[in-house]
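Submission checklist for the structure archive. All mandatory fields must be present; incomplete records are returned to the submitter.

[x] Identifier: DUF1330 domain-containing protein
[x] Organism: Pseudonocardia broussonetiae
[x] Residue count: 120
[x] Sequence attached
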Amino acid sequence: MAVNPSGADMKAFLADDPDQPIVMLNLLRFAPGGADRYDAYLAHFRPFAEKVGASVVYFGHGADPVVAEQGQDWDAVLLVSYPSRRAFSEMVRDPGYQEGTHLRTEALVEAVLQPTVPRG
């Protein structure tokens, strides 16, 4: 299961209104010991997010789901507000940011990155 976006993923992502503000929903399933590794990734991530005008809206660990199919529970949820899709793309292309992405990869066995847009 992929935990990082591919080049094709990013091309499709930017094709849909690159200047549109988004809140990126991250659903995270940790590898054994991955929660601490993900904390290290977040410490690396925050300065690069701030550099492009993004901010963490919420980060929390999952509790037992109230309603979910088997396997739909997640270890953590992260919401990050980006001023635009382009800002997200700029961040993930930054060589300094890329130096720390191994922390995220090592922390996770599964992830969903879903851009969301305000409604109304």
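[x] Structure attached
Curator remark: The domain at 7-64+71-116 is CATH 3.30.70.100 (Alpha-Beta Plaits). Helices lie at 7-15, 34-51, 85-93, 95-98, 101-107.
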